[in-house]
Amino acid sequence: MLDVVLLILQILFSAIGVYQLALTFFGWYKPKLKMKHEPRKSFAVLVAAHNEEQVVGALLENLKRLDYPKELYDVFVICDNCTDKTADIVRQHGVIAMERNNPQLRGKGYAIEWMLKELWKMPKKYDAVVMFDADNLCNPDYLSLMNNDLCNGSKVIQAYLDTKNPTDSWITGAYAVTYWYCNRLWQLPRTNLKMANFLGGTGMCFDAALLKEMGWGATSLVEDLEFTMRCVQRGIKPTLNFDAKVYDEKPLTFKASAKQRLRWMQGHFDVARRYSFPLLWQGIRERSWTKIDCAIYALNVYNLFFGSVVTMIMWGDLVMPGAARLTSLFDMAPAFFMAVTALNVIVFPLAMLVERAPLKVYKTLITFPVYMLSWWPITCYAFFTQNNKQWSHTEHTRVLRLEDVRSKQAS
Asked: Which residues pair with 46 in a beta bridge?
């Protein structure tokens, strides 16, 4: 019975893996530029901040220099349970500081939900809401590109997420490699195939009327994934603007990275448990591959967990004395699985090449397997602690300006 169960799981995981690999082939070309529009939409730019006195100033300077009419956007910084000088620095930059103090409901999702309620009360109304993290930077044309997409009919838009500090350490380099891969070979294929894209937690833009109608309602540890699921359930496809660049700071150390990724995985298990199967059945009933694809994406966290368990069992069987007792799918078609494995490895440096990654980051590929393998224990621990809803803050200290980031990209 164990052998049969393991064989079925191997077939299932292999099918999902081949499906994900097949999608990457649709990411090698970029769609044509969308129709451009004169600045028309007004934006409320929300910045989520918790004790971000070291980095928030650089973002505010960046936002003031956006290539968009100043009368068409206002910046609000959500100073959420701050115990430092974040709010003072925000006011020094002439920006609106929205101070929130609620130690019982901590985390970005709750902060956004509170801010939106405050926003709807204000006399000034906006066409769209944009969300950034306090450690971010964006290109000057960000709002112009969001304006184009909104005018072209998009309701929920995700920008291209890049890394602000890819050369700081081997771990920031690993993050950067992953993001280049995801943008090019995970998000762009779904754009080209007219499926839903996935929100990335920052650089997000929402039609205000839709947001007001739906309500935020995403207060899990991965509010971006949760809101993506809610959108797709309603038949709304988040879209990707590949040209709108947002740069996000990544943790410098493996310890900080593991803590952040543990929170992501705990939240991912929570959202997958609540949304994936209802969305899957809905997709099957409606014959909507977009909904099925989104459900598969949500279930990936379970695929990684159970795939790790199955792999360990199969390896254990191999090292036991005597002949192997369990059926290995790899033994049935070794050439096929070796080819698939090789392709799954090659796509990372290929994505770097296509996305013109800085030469200095290529050395990160030496230690990149360590980063990828570390997802296994993190995911396994997250499985057994998935009921933890305690939000953990990632400290940001890397003060860079946009010109610094561009200089590093060119090197």
From this structure: 76, 131
